[in-house]
């Protein structure tokens, strides 16, 4: 069960069409609605082209029915493109959590009051042999750094959401993202409810050694 | 009668409105759809195309929307339950045949996922600006039933209801969704077989030879006969008598068209569904439907938290319009605020019904996004000070 | 009143019909009744679908389950009817304006899909019901209500259109050839797939009179004198041009092709999927 004190939780996942942004949202929404017994509302916005244009998924988790389905001020932003970062990062609440693909998003030097978590998701996905599983890496990473969801719930939702032939690879990708978070930011990381993650305050455009 | 067991995905799902409305149609026993791809409704046909061949059903992509709706009407007369799904431009093309379905009293379901218009407009963004087209879009006088789901769960529930209403009243039933509800995913519970009431096609008990296809039966609705069983029925879009034969005189025309309107108008209380929130002591009532009703619900909650006696009337049935309810509210509240994604469509109807009572206020825009609850709250606050 | 051998196939309570003296549509309807008798198909299983126009009224006179639909949409209606109820034998009966102008796109796609319907297209070279306007088959130079100085449009060769779109049975007769027409209609009734029969018919009131072509009888003589039976003629070569003084009639196309929703391929496709499900 998602810790009640963290609700309502508002999450934006954003990137480019083809990165699996909507699917990532569906996996988290499914995990919440079906296995975490939380009300979850997922909306999406997309351009006319499915591939390559900006797209985003917005997820609201709450203990009662979600009325207004859009996220104005996210507590968590997963940005998988520079454009997505620039569009949505200014909306993050103070103390909000920013998760980026560190090779695709370069945050500016001054980014105060938010916690930054970076994962080389696309690079890892390439190492795993398929760029398309970058979203599962991000989802695994998200689960570990926020502690909002039980790992098992999301893994189950993932199994039910990805094409059957790719399930093994996607689960591997999920684990990869999850482990990276543990390695970088420590274990038993949980959402405090005020979104004060353990991430180091952003000190500029930092590079991670293990990337 | 119950739904078919195989077809029903009993259980809890995380599903968007387009998927849910498709599952609702399947649960209602619909096994035929003909459609033409159009954003943002396409996923409905795509899902149906993948689901029904395994259930012995048929889903075809036609050459345009004119053909899609007509193939559905043909399938209904062939004995199937049928539906099509479209959006603005396609809905416009279907108008002629909606009139044909009304004239021939064909039980037909049409889903319109509303996007911003006119013309191509904003294909991927929401609007609610086809509401009067739904009511008045085809030429001549007729009645339709229009339902407005505000969640994926309701897309499922109202799809079943739409087929039931179509079979009961023999009118086109329109499911007026919007892009947000269509693409919004939420928990959807699909009940068990015995929990779903499905109205099956009822055929006449009258023998061929004595049967008259357009003789009004109970509540003004004529009985259908099965095709291919020797009834030799004639169905025409021309003005027709009880035998179904063309009758080119003003008396037949008047009696026929008055029956079309009367079968809905005089049974409106049985057809209309709405929801009330915090209405009992409300001084300001927000009237909304579809996705807009959710922003309105958030605003009403906020208003109550601020001590303003606000309430919400949510239209589940847009047509027939809950005239009595609005009149009653108008007699006792200070203001009625219609919130919708158009420049004042259902507002006209609300304003007409509210006449002489509460002040009627319009809050709308031309679509592309939905109202923010704060904007509705401001309107409530302003109205409360009247 | 004496009865007629076809009475039991007609809605006699609707007669007399509305067609003009000298019009050929009634004669084609009689051929159709003969065809139903010849074909041996059960009258109960016959469904007739029409569009709008003079020819569209045929559905209203035949004692079968009959559907008089909207302008141009008879074929999509028939498609839905035939697919939903495969036990029916569905015939579409309408005019060239309805089937080829406003409904032209549906004709192409139903032929391409090889929908199991039979289409009878009465070609009288004009819009009769609305007062003699330009039709897709109006000959070049003809005066119509909307081309008062003569049509400049190239007319459409209907049999070629249907054949190239994929119809598996394509034929043409005139109302002079009532027996041949009945046999061809009967053959089409028992075949599966999309069949298309064009029937040339006089419109004495509008087309003939306006163009000084005489009366219905004159046109029948014209059909008699200039028709050439040439089965298996390539439909491309079967264009109609009054200046040629030649009307090629007969059955032009007979071929077999997978019928829409009969195809074993599509069944296999679903079965394959089923295994996975």
TrEMBL record, chain A:
Q: Which UniProt keywords apply?
A: Oxidoreductase
Know the name of this protein? Pyruvate/ketoisovalerate oxidoreductase catalytic domain-containing protein
- Whether Cell division counts among this entry's keywords is no
Q: Which residues form a coiled coil?
A: none
Q: Which domain of life is it from?
A: Bacteria
- Pyruvate/ketoisovalerate oxidoreductase catalytic domain mapped to chain residues: 17-178
Alphabetized Gene3D superfamilies for the sequence: Pyruvate-ferredoxin oxidoreductase, PFOR, domain III
Q: Indicate the secretion signal residues.
A: none
Single GO term (MF): oxidoreductase activity, acting on the aldehyde or oxo group of donors
The yes or no answer to whether the keyword Oxidoreductase is present is yes
InterPro entries per UniProt: 2-oxoglutarate_synth_KorC, Pyrv/ketoisovalerate_OxRed_cat, Pyrv_flavodox_OxRed_cen
Automatic annotation (TrEMBL), chain B:
Signal peptide stretch:
none
Q: Which organism is it from?
A: Candidatus Raymondbacteria bacterium RIFOXYD12_FULL_49_13
Task: Please state what the protein is called.
Answer: 2-oxoglutarate synthase subunit alpha
* Lineage, opening ranks: Bacteria, Raymondiibacteriota
Q: Which PANTHER family match?
A: SUBUNIT OF PYRUVATE:FLAVODOXIN OXIDOREDUCTASE, SUBUNIT OF PYRUVATE:FLAVODOXIN OXIDOREDUCTASE-RELATED
**A Pfam family that the UniProt record links to this protein:** PFOR_II
Q: Which residues form the Pyruvate flavodoxin/ferredoxin oxidoreductase pyrimidine binding domain?
A: 23-257
| Domain Pyruvate:ferredoxin oxidoreductase core: from-to ranges | 282-376
Q: Name one GO molecular function term.
A: oxidoreductase activity
Name the keywords, alphabetized. Answer: Oxidoreductase
UniProt xrefs under InterPro entries: 2-oxoacid_oxidoreductase, PFOR_II, Pyrv_Fd/Flavodoxin_OxRdtase_N, THDP-binding, Transketo_C/PFOR_II
Alphabetical list of SUPFAM superfamilies matching this protein: Thiamin diphosphate-binding fold (THDP-binding) (SSF52518), TK C-terminal domain-like (SSF52922)
Q: Which domain of life is it from?
A: Bacteria
UniProtKB/TrEMBL annotation, chain C:
Sorted alphabetically, which SUPFAM superfamilies does this protein's record hold?
Answer: Thiamin diphosphate-binding fold (THDP-binding)
Q: Which GO terms describe its biological process?
A: cellular respiration
Q: Which domain of life is it from?
A: Bacteria
Q: Which GO terms describe its molecular function?
A: oxidoreductase activity, acting on the aldehyde or oxo group of donors, iron-sulfur protein as acceptor; thiamine pyrophosphate binding
Query: Which residues belong to any copy of the Thiamine pyrophosphate enzyme TPP-binding domain?
Result: 55-199
Keyword annotations for this protein, in alphabetical order, are:
Oxidoreductase
| A Pfam family hit | TPP_enzyme_C
Q: Which InterPro entries match?
A: 2-oxoacid:Fd_oxidoreductase (IPR051457), THDP-binding (IPR029061), TPP_enzyme_TPP-bd (IPR011766)
Any idea what this protein is called?
Answer: 2-oxoacid:ferredoxin oxidoreductase subunit beta
| Taxonomic source organism | Candidatus Raymondbacteria bacterium RIFOXYD12_FULL_49_13
